[in-house]
Design brief:
5 helices; 200 residues; 8 strands; 28% helix; alpha+beta; 29% strand
Length: 200
């Protein structure tokens, strides 16, 4: 996939660049980010360099993850890292991807992450033909869930022992966003389960 850029009213979403290393390093010093994500702790400059200069570009090149740095349009301040991950099922017939993100501590509570998330989801539906977007977070991550709900994800439940964090299996919350949740059609027909219908 050729790296792309998205914009919203307040934000610029673009692939990370070497000049973003210091901002990523600073953001990931917040202990809440490694607590709830796969970001290493302690987070070093080497981690930031690897993520910005190797991991993120490789994801675009190999179609394994499409990661954006999210920046304010007014000042160019880093808001978050957000992208589509686990793209193994992106091709037909699966047409699925997962939305992942972390947000810098100073930028939380302003609606930025949900704004960026809606832009990424719109791009996924419109340009990539995605028919099911998933969101997964460790159970208890109420901030991430609030963002997902604001975007429009429908919570589907708690998945037992889904996430391994610090050598321990933990339960996860999961949700999904379908094109139909936004009043859009999918190339593949969707037949929801109806508990009132007799089984065939």
């Amino acid at each position: 996939m050729e790296p792309t850029t998205l914009t919203t009213g307040r934000l610029l979403l673009r692939p990370l660049e070497s000049s973003d290393v210091d901002a990523v390093l600073a953001a990931c010093q917040d202990p809440e980010i490694p607590r709830w994500t796969t970001v290493p702790s302690p987070y070093t400059r080497a981690h930031a360099v690897d993520f910005v200069e190797q991991v993120s570009p490789r994801g675009w090149r190999d179609d394994t993850s499409y990661n954006f740095g999210v920046f304010t349009r007014e000042s160019g301040t880093l808001v978050s890292s957000m992208g589509l991950v686990r793209l193994a099922q992106l091709a037909a017939p699966g047409r699925q991807a997962e939305l992942g993100y972390w947000t810098a501590k100073e930028q939380r509570g302003r609606g930025y992450t949900a704004e960026a998330g809606r832009a990424v989801c719109d791009w996924a539906f419109r340009s990539l033909g995605v028919e099911r977007l998933e969101w997964v977070a460790e159970a208890g991550n109420v901030g991430s869930r609030a963002v997902a709900l604001s975007i429009g994800f429908v919570m589907e439940g708690t998945v037992r022992a889904k996430i391994v964090q610090d050598g321990t299996r933990r339960d996860a919350w999961s949700g999904a966003l379908l094109p139909s949740d936004w009043g859009r059609e999918s190339a593949t027909a969707y037949l929801p389960y109806d508990a009132g219908q007799p089984s065939a």
